[in-house]
Amino acid sequence: MSKLILAGGTGFLGNVLSKYFQNQFDEIVILSRSQAKMKGKVRRITWDGKTIGNWTEELEGADVILNLTGKNINCRY
């Protein structure tokens, strides 16, 4: 069973990547500050990026972890 984790994957790039990889991974987990229901193979897990919690268990057995957290690229500089 293959597993992809997208940390901060709720933005534009995360949505594109989760749709693209749905046929290549059995499970896709998005680590997000907000909770949402599962959509197909994609599910969200709440995290804050600062404290260790239950979300760390999701890292076990992951084949790929992509860190998309950081400043929004859709802004004026």
Structural overview:
By secondary structure, the protein is of the alpha/beta class. It is 13% helix and 26% strand. The chain is built from 1 helix and 4 strands; from the N terminus they run βαβββ. The protein has a 4-stranded parallel β-sheet, covered by helices on one side. Helix 1 links the parallel strand 1 and strand 2. The termini are far apart. The model has no long low-confidence stretch (mean pLDDT 87).
Summed up, what is this model?
The chain is α/β, with parallel strands linked by helices and 77 residues long.
Order of helices and strands: EHEEE
Distance between the termini: 42 Å
Spatial strand arrangement across the major sheet: 3-2-1-4
Structural class designation: alpha/beta
Beta-strand percentage range: 25-35%
Radius of gyration over C-alpha positions, nearest whole angstrom: 12 Å
Q: Which descriptors would you attach to this protein?
A:
77 residues; alpha/beta; four-stranded parallel beta sheet; 13% helix
Helix and strand topology:
Layout: E1 3-7, H1 12-21, E2 27-32, E3 42-46, E4 64-67
Parallel strand pairs: 1-2, 1-4, 2-3
